[in-house]
Structures are given as C-alpha cells and as structure tokens.
Amino acid sequence: MGVMLKWGAGGAAVAVLAAATAGAAYAQAAPGAPAAKAPDNAAGAVPPSGSINARQAPRKPKTLFDDPDPTLALTPGFGGANAPLRPRPGAPPNPDPKNFEGVWWLRGYEYLLGPSPGVPAPLKPQYIELLKKRIRAKNAGKPETDTSTACFPHGMPRLMESPYPIEIVQTPGRVTFLHEVAHEVRRIYLDQKHPANLPETFLGHSVGHWEGDTLVVDTVGINDKSFIDDEGEAHSNKEHLTERYRKIDGGRQIELVMTVDDPVTLEHPYSYTRYYEWRPDVRPSEYICEENNRNAPVNGVTVAK
Amino acid sequence: MQKTLSLLAAGAALAALPALAHAQSHPDFTGAWQIAAYSAALKPVDGGAVPLKPEAKKVYDQHLAAAAKGDRTWDETTICLPEGLPRLQTIKEPFEIMQKSNAMYFVAQNRLPWRAYFNEKLPDDPDPMYLGYHVAKWEGDKLVIDSSGFRDVSMLDDSGIPHSEKLRLTATYEMGADNKTMSVTWRIEDPDTFTKPWTAKASFKRMPANFQFPEEVCAAKLQSTAPKR
Questions:
Q1: Can you tell me the ipTM of this complex?
Q2: Do the Cβ atoms of B219 and A290 come within 8 Å?
Q3: List of chain A residues whose C-beta atoms are within 8 Å of the C-beta of residue B225
Q4: What residues does each domain of chain A span?
Q5: Is residue B60 within 8 Å of B74, Cβ to Cβ?
C-alpha cells in the first residue's frame, strides 16, 4: 500500500505558494493577445481553435461528483482542452509535421486529471475515498504535500499538466522535453524497448515511435510516490501511460491524447486531451524549487536576493 | 530596383553557401560526456596558483578549512541549490550536449539545463541566474561559448573557489580526433575575485552510445524534506 502518505509540516504554506505561482504564470500568458483567428486545420478531427473558443464548454462540477458537501470543493482550474486559445506573434512554426522543436505552453491547466474537467479518473472505490480525504485535507488548509511541493519531480502524468513552458529538442534517436518547471527532463528514446529490470523513477522510462505524423510515447517504471494530479488521485507503480502527440492548427499547437492505465488504482484506463501552444516568444527560465527555502544561509548570508 | 533586389538575394544565397558547407563540417558534440580525471579543484593551466584577490582568498581558505573538518555548509549544493559553472561540468556525474543549428543545449545529470544561443549577444544587464546566460559561436572547428550573468551564490568548483556576479566565462570546446574525447578550456575573468583572468582546462570522455541518464533527485538526499512513506 505504497500510496498512503504521511507528510511533514510546512506543506500547506508551500502548496499555497505553488498555487499562487501557477496563477501568476498563467496570467502572464494572457494580456494583450490578439483575437483568435480560426486557423487551417488539415487534420479535421480536432475542432479548430476558433471553434474551441466559441464552443460552450460543458458545465464543470465545483465539487467532487457534484457532491453538496462543500468540503469536497475542487480547486478551480483553467478549462483543460476547453481553455481559450491565445495566439501570439512570433516566428512561424516549422512546417515539418514531425518537427516539434521549440517552446510550447499548456492551455488550460487543470488540478483534477480525469476524462474531462471536474470529472475524476475512474478510480477504484478505496482510491475515491483516498481522493476525498486529500481534497478535504486541502480544503481544511492542511493539504498532503505532494512530491513537487517537496522539490521532488512531479510524477506523471502530472508533469505534462504544469503551467510552465516545455522546450522540445529532437536529436537522432531521441525526443527530449525540457520542462521549465523544476528543470525536469523527459528523454523519449525512439524505436527502442524499455530496458529489463527498470528502476522505478518519478517520471518513468519513455520510449516512442512515429505513427505517421503522430509521436506515440509509452511510459512505464513510474514509482508510486507521486499523484496523478494536483488534487491527489492515486497511482501505483503499475501505472502505464500512452501519449499521442501531433501538430495541429497549422503547427501552432501540439495535441496530446493522454491515456492513463493503472490496474491497481483504476477500474479501467481513461484518456483526456490537451493542447500545447506554440510559443516562439518564450524562453524557458531558471526555476529553483529549493528557493522556497529562502532563508537558508550560504556563506553567512541568505540566499534570497 | 527589382534587379538590385534579386542581385542582393543572389548575393545572400551565395554568401550562405560557404556558411552552410562550413556548418556541416563542424564536429558534433551531441551526446553524454563525463570528466576524464576528476579533481575537486580547478587548476590554472599555467601551473601557478589561482590568482585570488586577498578578500576572495580569505573566503576560499575558509571553505578549504571547513571542508577539511567535514563542514560543507558553505556549499549551496548541500541544500540542493544549483552548481554554477564550470562546476556543473567538472563534477563526477556526466552531462549531456544537444547540438542544434540555433543553440547548444546542455543538461547535467541532475537535470540542470543551460542553453547557449548562436548569433546572439550576451544581455547587457541580466537578472543573475545560477547558470547564467550564454552565447555560442564557431571558430573553425572550435565551439566557443561566452557566459555571464551568474549569481554569486555558487562556486567555480567542488573545492569552493568563490566568484562574484561579475564572473565571465569563455569556454572553448575542442573535439578529439577519435570523436570520443573532447576538451574544454575556460577563460575565467572576475575583477572582484581575481587579480587577473586565468585559464583552466579539462578533458571529457564520451559515454557509451547506450548510456541513459538515471533520474537524479537531490531532494531525496535531504532527510528533512524527504517524504516519509
């Protein structure tokens, strides 16, 4: 039962700080953007961004399962795949559909990662209860500190739901995701198998291959120390992720269809879609998780500037 | 007018050709690299002492004396703050280079990244960062990376050579003939710390082709913050 956690003091303050940072980062992306223009969408299967803006997003539950109990209130998110698109000026995206290089930024950061915003993952009953316990703890101002607030990696799929830029670099045999958040790195090894006797890690081991213009990534070997999401949905070390990435919208967005499977905590696999916006105007900056601890003395002076 | 434009365009295209051919001839530093012979202290290539100013020497001597007694509280990395440069390359753990036409990407095993952009200038008044700001250029087959804008919290090496925010590094990367080794020469300039610029050098060996970086999590070393499970 590796998912039952005990946490040290101080998590609440750090969690609040992290939430405030997340909000600020999101707000940064918002101001002064020109109105959305419906771009070409050769793929067709995905609504073009214009219609995403216009589309009536499904009503999002404010509590878990719309429960009248206010202690089950969900943290408001930013709409997931329903989030408005904010096109930005800058260099045009690379016309090659298999060239994902550049900086991308998630649209619509959500705290609960289920099949749609406000809807939880198909967790088994005991993990629904665990989620309720974590949501109640958070709403009581005493959240269970998750890995990222203790400066451990976010875990997966949560890392892909961070409201920070991701720079993608492609080199022979590899696609590399350089996340600004906590300078986390995902290395996706192309056309390889997962090694035998894989050590369990926070981000797992990722292999990928191309199916046409879609990059398909398979990730296993994820330890059970992280949560699926910010709200505290549990996963085990049997978590298995399948990600399908493709450029849409004339290359201005990358669509991710994330499929989460976990025979321990989930009744069945589930999927959700996210969009990452092309952001040639952004350069990832330095992110020092540990400087939440701003009073640590170095050479007799505090680190904080 | 049109003729002028097309001439200009043709001129630009012609000018680009040798550059293109030249670009292809550059050595490819892409891959994982590890220092060939670890040493805690950077040493000047001229064989002399590090030209520390008296105040900086006092700080360095304190670091050495404390470390001799097992006290590394002066070392920011013991509380998981980033190594600066060139320390992040001269520690025992390997780092990765990804070479692209517009930038050189570096990623340490502990996941700290830094990027050096081609065809750019260093910022005049940067907001200092642990890993600074970097621009890259080719000088023949040598890759030259200029860096500035460092925070003064970090050390130049594991032994604890301090530096100020005026630190400026010029790193020259040279590929070995076998393509499996490279050397890096750092010109180290910091008028607040050193009496004169000095130079250090290190050799690196290429990691095997099947090497995959392990996930290194500094926080796991800190008992105070490690999640209890």
A1: 0.88
A2: yes
A3: 8, 150-151
A4: 62-280
A5: no
